[in-house]
């Protein structure tokens, strides 16, 4: 490990030790932008560690956002390492945005939107979408967002090129031959090495704890004593960490489609093969079978599954190559993995599947949809942040023999996502940094927290949400039945909308957990 990384880890361990011992670290005069990991009972955690004035007193220079006329954008400087902001390490730049409340007289405060992934590139522009979808909220809240450290217009991690990433995805992850397994492990090692080579001095500081401190600095620079927060997917974990580190800075907390933050990334990701397979088998496959007259992929789930396997086997023997697009077995699986996040994706994916039966005879519309479905999975910008966070937030088993064995078991049981387990886990097994200090989410000192999750969510599966809900005391879980969509607010579900907006607008949280059924199409 390099000297910089060692120094940051020593500072982190010192801070963690003080937390465990129940000691407050020395503090200077409090400012609106102070930041900390922990504080004694009854004290604002923002008072435990002071932020240097060069950060807390900076002025955000708001300007119109490029391509987003409804938003203003600015850039804030943050310490590379919040455990030692005076370390002398180069600062990071965080791109931030805002939309000011349209009803200034009725303004309630600021609502911050987090972005998912880890690796989502849309954090900066998300406020514009919420302004359109939730005008009542936008009337009384300033809606703000940011590209979190490591992505987008903020200081970002660089790992592989697009060509190298396509090599990472090439082939058939179901292939259990020694040669295929060795190639997968080698590709994963090369990915980790590329991150170290291109961003090594940044990697130790790309984690959820550091991002939570960035959020609190942004709150202070906005002049807000308290902040409301809405975070979907990975942003639910950012929100849970923020609420744990800064509970007295939280006004409202909404966590939508929840990561299992009460455990480790390793454990959480080991549950995803099951949940993606469930969503595919129980939602998409029956949907496709019911529309055999349109897509001709089988009139029963069994026929659709058999058709899928025939096509996949054919792509193993002879991938489709069309210009820059190659569709092999992994690309077929990746298309389905991306599709099942939202039921609204089903029709376009089904149309793309029709092109695979006879590529030469397929129409241009079906081919165009196939290019979109099978040619754009995650990408090198996304995965640079994704692995930086998931490999660094919590410990990983680094024994490759274990991952070869586990991936074989998951491949046999859950053939959609199980096969990629080895490739993704082997990246973390080779990751060049140590895990960040652990944050235990408890809900202590927080106001009632609203949690939303659908029962068949493939990525942030319901079982993980239940575990996170139990860990976060005082939270209220809204279970969305009849749905597997990822992201529950804002949507057309009026039950969910009413619960969320009653909480934000009237400060009325549900007294207990509740269920919201998904409206059925007429």
Q: What brief labels describe this structure?
A:
single chain, 522 residues, alpha/beta, Rossmann fold, 2 domains, ten-stranded mixed beta sheet, two-stranded antiparallel sheet, 12 strands, 44% helix, disordered N terminus
The structural domain count equals 2
**Alpha-carbon distance between the two ends:** 59 Å
CATH superfamily of the largest domain: Alpha/Beta hydrolase fold, catalytic domain
Look at the structure and give the CATH class of the largest domain: Alpha Beta
Taking pLDDT < 50 over at least 5 consecutive residues as the criterion, the unreliable ranges are: 1-47
Assembly state of the chains shown: single chain
- The pLDDT mean sits at 91
User: Could you say what the CATH architecture of the largest domain is?
Assistant: 3-Layer(aba) Sandwich
Query: Biggest sheet, open or closed, and with what strands and sense?
Result: 10 strands, mixed
CATH topology label of the largest domain:
Rossmann fold
By DSSP (H or I, 4+ residues per run), the number of helices equals 20
**What is the percent of helical residues?**
40-55%
Q: How does the helix and strand content classify structurally?
A: alpha/beta
Beta-strand proportion:
5-15%
Q: How are strands sequenced across the largest beta sheet?
A: 1-2-3-5-4-6-7-10-11-12
Q: Measured on Cα atoms, how large is the radius of gyration?
A: 23 Å
Q: How many β-strand runs?
A: 12
């Amino acid at each position: 490990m390099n000297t910089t990384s060692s120094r940051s880890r020593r500072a982190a361990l010192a801070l963690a030790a003080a937390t465990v011992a129940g000691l407050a670290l020395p503090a200077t005069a409090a400012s609106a932008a102070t930041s900390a990991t922990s504080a004694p009972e009854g004290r604002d955690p923002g008072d435990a560690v002071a932020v240097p004035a060069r950060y807390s007193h900076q002025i955000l220079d708001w300007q119109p956002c490029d391509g987003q006329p409804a938003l203003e954008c600015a850039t804030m400087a943050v310490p590379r390492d919040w455990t030692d902001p005076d370390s002398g390490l180069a600062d990071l730049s965080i791109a931030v945005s805002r939309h000011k409340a349209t009803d200034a007289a009725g303004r309630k405060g600021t609502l911050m939107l987090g972005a998912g992934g880890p690796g989502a590139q849309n954090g900066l522009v998300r406020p514009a979408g919420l302004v359109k979808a939730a005008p009542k909220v936008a009337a009384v809240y300033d809606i703000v967002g940011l590209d979190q450290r490591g992505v987008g217009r903020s200081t970002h991690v660089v790992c592989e090129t697009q060509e190298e990433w396509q090599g990472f995805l090439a082939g058939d992850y179901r292939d259990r031959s020694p040669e295929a397994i060795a190639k997968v492990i080698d590709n994963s090692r090369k990915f980790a090495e590329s991150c170290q080579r291109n961003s090594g001095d940044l990697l130790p500081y790309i984690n959820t704890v550091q991002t939570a401190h960035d959020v609190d600095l942004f709150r202070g620079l906005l002049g807000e004593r308290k902040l409301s927060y809405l975070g979907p997917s990975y942003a639910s974990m950012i929100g849970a960490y923020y609420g744990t580190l800064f509970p007295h800075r939280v006004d409202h907390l909404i966590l939508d489609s929840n990561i299992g933050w009460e455990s480790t990334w390793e454990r959480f990701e080991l549950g995803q093969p099951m949940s993606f397979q469930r969503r595919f088998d129980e939602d998409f496959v029956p949907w496709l079978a019911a529309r055999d007259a349109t897509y001709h992929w089988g009139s029963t789930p069994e026929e659709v599954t058999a058709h899928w396997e025939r096509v996949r086997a054919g792509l193993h023997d002879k991938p489709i190559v069309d210009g820059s697009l190659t569709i092999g077995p992994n690309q077929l699986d990746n298309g389905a993995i991306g599709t099942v996040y939202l039921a609204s994706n089903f029709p376009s994916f089904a149309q793309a599947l029709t092109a695979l039966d006879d590529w030469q005879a397929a129409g241009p519309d079906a081919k165009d949809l196939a290019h979109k479905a099978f040619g754009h999975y995650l990408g090198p910008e996304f995965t640079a942040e994704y692995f930086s966070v998931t490999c660094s937030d919590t410990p990983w088993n680094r024994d490759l023999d274990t991952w070869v064995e586990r991936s074989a078991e998951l491949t046999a049981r859950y053939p959609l996502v199980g096969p990629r387990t080895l490739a993704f886990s082997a990246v973390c097994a080779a990751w060049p940094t140590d895990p960040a200090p652990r944050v235990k989410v408890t809900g202590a000192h927080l106001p009632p927290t609203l949690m939303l999750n659908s029962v068949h969510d493939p990525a942030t599966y319901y079982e993980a949400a239940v575990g996170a809900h139990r860990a976060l005391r005082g939270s209220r879980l809204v279970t969305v039945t009849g749905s597997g969509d990822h992201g529950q607010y804002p949507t057309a579900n009026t039950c969910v909308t009413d619960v969320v907006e009653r909480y934000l607008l009237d400060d009325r949280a549900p007294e207990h957990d509740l269920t919201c059924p998904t409206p059925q199409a007429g």
